Request: fold
Amino acid sequence: MTNKLWEASLKEKKNSNLYAFEKFISKKIKKKFNLNYKTFLNWTVKNSPEFWNYFWEFSEIKGLKSKKKIKKSKIFYKNLFLPGSKLNFGENLLSKNNDDKAITFISENGFREEKSWRELNLSTGKIVKFLKEIKIKKGDRVAAYMPNTIETVEAFIAASTIGSIWSSCSPDFGIKGVVERFSQINPKVLFITDQYFYNGKKINVLERLSEILKSIPSIKNVVIVNYPGKKNVINHSKYKKIKLIKWREIIQNQSEKINFKKYDFESELAILYSSGTTGKPKCICHKTGGVLLQHKKEHQLHCDIKENDNVFYFTTCGWMMWNWLVSSLASKASIVLFDGSPMYKTSDLLLKIAQREKITLFGISAKYIDALRKLEPNLKFKYKLQKLKTICSTGSPLSSEGFKYVYKNIKKKVHLSSISGGTDIVSCFVLGNIYQPVNIGEIQNSGLGLDVDVFNDRGKSLKNSKGELVCKNPFPSMPLKFWNDKNDVKFKKAYFNRYKNTWHHGDYAERKNTDGFIIHGRSDTTLNPGGVRLGTAEIYSEVEKFKEIKEALVVGQSWDNDIRIILFVVMTNGYALNDTLLSRIKTQIKTNASPRHVPKKVIVVKDIPRTKSGKIVELAVKSTIEGSIVKNKEALANPDVLKQYKNLKQLKTFFNKETEVILNG
Reply:
């Protein structure tokens, strides 16, 4: 049986941005690549500075490109690409100024609005004018506590236009989560929504403002934004020492022509945050030029985004995929923003939107595909999705069942691009390309210009064996620094402690003979029963096949001088975990993964802890069942869930022969 699920036709390949760039390079260096991704990738890695230099030209980045391609350094992250180059990030995102559609916003209850490029330019100009009036300048931090709306995008573009540093949290973060992040960077202005909605429930955000302002005294101006389609009355008397400004008052003012001042390629653009599940969130500061160059490369060469395409990603503005989505504007594409529950009133809500909005790139999480597979097992191409070219999946590894579900139920002729990277690089290390086929369970290859590999503990390259995902060469979207990290102590510890002069990403991965990648989970959540290292993704991949199980979480518990595997499961409504189902689960894991992967205990729980961006948090559960303190519960979307994992008598009982079923709650 073939593992190939899809391959682009020769016509599609030759009509792609990747082929156009290949021809562009071939003309420059007098070398042919013949639609061979591996050959082309190898050239971009060996000639990395030339590749990035040529891609600036090809993608027509607005700015002043220096003649020097790289300033080399023995320190990995001190290598500077295109040193001396200057650009304005906001100018590059405002890539058009006509009546074509630029942005569409859709809320879970169906409220919809759109803005043309002309309207986007005008609104951004007004925000730029306002920021200058309140004396925001280059390097000042601009914070946003906002949902995924057009106003948030406009504020971001305006902030980047004047050289200030953007940082955002979505409103599902509680007060402590916001304060923990923003208090580290001392913003001068805060954009805040008055309310937001999730699964039909209205949540008041303004009532949190007093506490936030008490804890972050650097905030001197607050801009209050009404949730789209809703009205709210603001009580000004509560905030006497702070200047409150209504968004609509700013927008009612006259616009002025934007002066796009050029800033250094290495200038700060945005501060993103680590999940904070193991301590205080790290403030990761990203660079203007590197982010723009890397995002345009991924959008144009890997996702084949073209002018007037309609790009959608299900994300909040507390996740790096929001930044990735918004940058699509730089490729003259239109973006579609959604805010709310992806399954409000109907499990296929996002697919309905994809059909109605004529989406060309549909970005979702692997967990969403898995949930859809269980809730809509016989979707059978209910939506035609005629404009859809690419489906991107990220957030966690996409199972083989998820791959097959897309092609059997969503669309046959579509490029399914499983992608993986992170907040650390606000982009991807491994992702799709139109030259290679899509194989079941595999991410197609690494990104152009990136020397990605899998190492064993001794730093030796591996193939068809699991190890640590690394990048062996510098690249433009390396973060500039961690905020408030003297001498880069935390920065070096995060990425360069494991291997000498090599970026260690913290993913447990495998590279196949096809040059495809499989991500087996985060390195810090791998399992070590009997001293043998196992990836959690291999267990999830098997458990997800059972319609009886809605969701699962697996951890390794320290036990009897060893590690034993504990599997927690949330049952689908109408099903219970009995001996028959348990036997089937064990057999399937044993057969398709290995006998070592079979859990010693299976425990039914009501829910699973997750981060604000929807990622499950194994470490919090491991700490809880072993009696350790979970350092930062505020990073979780549902911290109260951890109570059901605490002091489980069954996990304290010595037992190591057979898998045991435990019903908890």
